[in-house]
Design goal:
Layout lengths: L1 H9 L9 H11 L3 H14 L5 H16 L3 H14 L3 H17 L3 H18 L4 H15 L3 H18 L2 H17 L3 H17 L3 H18 L4 H14 L8 H9 L1
Amino acid sequence: PDGLRERAASALGPPTEDDPVLRAARARVDAGDHAAAISALLQAVAAAHDPGRATAERRLLLAALHWYLRDGAGAAAQWTAVRREAADARHRARAAIGLGVLHMQAGELDSALNELSHAQVDADVAGDTHIVPLACLDLAEARALRGQLTDALRAGRRARDEARALRDGALEAKASRALGQVYADMGLWRAAEATLADASALARAANLDDERLVAHALRAHVALDARPGDRTAAAVALDRLLSLGGGQDPEGLGALVHAVRA
């Protein structure tokens, strides 16, 4: 859920420097005064005479703030308004990603697929190279969860390739991890192991400790599933997981290790 929340918030995109309302709101966010930022943005949105670019971007920031504060309903209201009103395909794509992630988190996979498919189309229409890999990444995960593995593979490959073209190591790490999981779901063990190894290395370079942990956990599962009679490879991967945990036990990692060893 936290990773989904991060991606939903990242769908806001880069800051807009020519809107004084957004600049002031971001300054309040940087100062930790989220309530004041939300209040100012709500007033600006309510006073707007037309749903133009400024209103869409203010709503996107509002949605990101609501989502960061774990107010899914508040975020959904703003994203829905942008999807309905915005003329710019980039804004619609960003809003659709947020709604898609929200539905995916709730287990509403058909609704998630609908929103994320629209997000990919709008991102392509807008030619937004930064939002396309985000849309494809979430679409790959939703399709995999729905059992649409061939489509998930296509979306996952595109997410990784687009992130690589952008030289965005953090995004490529996440896309590679998602793609590796799809390979594993399809029983393509060598491709899964190689792709998850890439994801781990990229996550390490980008200082994404949680993402690296997930990649290692998936590598451990791949080792078990690919070679059920050979526990040595899995044991090595699990020992690496414990060392990465820094003595802590994120997400019940120690229980996973002992369960697999048993």
